[in-house]
Amino acid sequence: MKAIPAIDSSWPSQIWNSARQLAEVPAINLANLVPPGSRAVIVAPHPGDEVVASGGLLQVLAHHGHPLQLISISDGSASHPGSERWPKRRLSVFRPQESAEALRRLGLPLHSLKWIRGGFADNALSGREQQLVPFISRYLRDSDVVFSTWRADGNLDHEAVGRATAKAAALVGARFYEIPLWAWHWSSREEHQIPWQRARKLRLDTWTVARKRHAAHAYASQLQGEPEIGLEPSLSPVLLERLRLPYEIILM
C-alpha cells in the first residue's frame, strides 16, 4: 500500500485545511482517552458517521483490545429524498449492509462487536430527542467511555444525538466525549466557533488512515449525487480528502 501524500492545498478553504489552531491541538494517548479495560461506545446518528467521524479511533481501540459497542440511531434511509435510484425501501436495507462492509474494512472483530440499530427515522431525530435518551442509556454502563457527534456540529440530527447521548451518559455516570463531523467543513472564517481549548488529537499512522478512507468508500450510495434532482453526494471529494488527516479530533 502506498504512503499517503500531503494534503492538496487546492481544496476550498475550510476549517479542516485552514484553521491555524489545528496544528496547536495537544495530543492525547489512548490510555488517557479510554482507560485500560474500559468499554468504548460509539453513538452514530446515521450509518457511516461512525466511520467518517471515528474510523481511526475504532481501529486503535480494537487493536488495543478494548470492548466496543456501536449504536446506530437511524438506518439512513432518508438520505436521497425524491430519488428513484435510491428509494427509502432500498436504502433501509442497503445502508446497514454498507456499514457492515465498512467495519470489515476497518478490521473490526464483527463476531464479537456489539452493534445496536435503533431504527429511528433520520432527518427527524431532533423531534425524537426525548425518546433517544432512555433508548441510549439502556445500553450504557457507568464504566463506559461514550463518543458521539458534537452538540453544535451544524446538522440537526448530529446535534440531537449528541445532546441525547450526553444526557444518557450523565444518567448512568459514564464519561462522554464529542467528535465534530460537519463542522470541519465550515468556512475557515468560522474557526472561532470551535472550542479549541477542549480539543485533543489522537494521532493515527499511515495504515490506519488508509483503512479509514477505504472503509468510507464502502458507502456506495453516498458517493454519487443525482444532479437531475439536485442531490449532491453525501461523501463529497472534499470530505474524502479530509479523511487523509493523520489524527482524530476529540472534544473532551
Concise account of the structure shown:
The protein has 252 residues and is an alpha/beta fold.
Folded structure, characterized:
InterPro entries: GlcNAc_PI_deacetylase-related, LmbE-like_dom_sf. It holds the Pfam family PIG-L. This is N-acetylglucosaminyl deacetylase, LmbE family. GO terms for molecular function: hydrolase activity, acting on carbon-nitrogen (but not peptide) bonds, in linear amides. The protein is 35% helix and 15% strand. It has helices spanning 15-18, 30-33, 49-63, 88-106, 129-137, 156-172, 206-216, 220-223, 237-242, and strands at residues 40-44, 68-74, 114-120, 145-149, 175-179, 199-203, 247-251. The longest helix is centred in the middle third of the chain and has 19 residues, at 88-106. The chain is built from 9 helices and 7 strands; from the N terminus they run H-H-E-H-E-H-E-H-E-H-E-E-H-H-H-E. The relative contact order is 0.21. It is globular and about 50 Å long. Strands 3-2-1-4-5 form a 5-stranded parallel β-sheet, with helices on both faces. A two-stranded antiparallel ribbon has the order 6-7. The chain has one domain: LmbE-like (Rossmann fold, 3-Layer(aba) Sandwich). With 252 residues, it is α/β, with parallel strands linked by helices.
